[in-house]
Amino acid sequence: MIEFKHVRLRYHYDDSVVLKDLNFTLSNGVNTILCDSQSGKSSVCKLLTKQFAPIDGQICVDGQDISGITNRDLGILYIPSEPAFFENRSVAYNITYPLKVRKAAKDERIKRFDEIASKFNLTYGDVKLKKLSKSERKRVALARGLTVKRKTVLFDDFFESADQIDEVISLFDDVETIVILTSNINLVRGNVVVLDDGVAVYQGDVNGAREIRKNLSWIVDILRSE
Q: 225 partner at 20 to 30 Å CA-CA among 64, 83, 118, 188?
C-alpha cells in the first residue's frame, strides 16, 4: 500500500507549488490516477521514483516513509509512453540491462533473455533499438520490466487503448501494486484517484470517477471525443 499524506511539491526551478496538499492511497492490486498532463501525474511519478522529494508531507509504502527506503528495496518500475533505451545497443542488451546493473553473470542474463523472448515471441534480439517501431519498443519496455522482480509498476500514459490493459497487467501478476496514470477515462481500472490542480479531488470506483470528471475543466475535450 502506498500513501500520500499532505504532500506538497515545488520544483527547484519554479516558485509555484505543483502539488498543494495531496492525500490518497494506492492499494495492493490495480489503481488508476486520472488527471490532466498539467495536474500532477508526472510529479507523482517523480516523487515515487525519488527523483524529487516533497517540501512537506510524507509518502509511505506499507507504513514506512520512502525517504528511508533505498530505490532497490522500493522496487518501483516506471514505464512511460516513450521509454528510454540504449539506441545503438541490441534488444537483448536493453532487456537484460537491469540484470547487468545488478552484476548478474552473463550466463544468467542470457538464460533470462531467452525466457522472456519466448514469452513475448521476440525474434529480433540482435536488432538495434533505433530500428524498432513504436509498438515494438513498447514490447521491449515490458520485457525489460520483467527481468527482475518489482513491487510496484507505474504505467505513465503507456496505454493507447483499453484492449491492451488486461493483457499487459496479466504479465505483472506477481507485482503488489499496479498504477495506471492517464487522462483517458476509458483506460481507468480498479481503485481510482482523480487529481485536479495539484490535489486529489476523488478516490473510489470507476463510476464515481465518471461523475466527478464532469466538473473538471480539463476533461471537456475528452468528453467531446467520446
A: 83
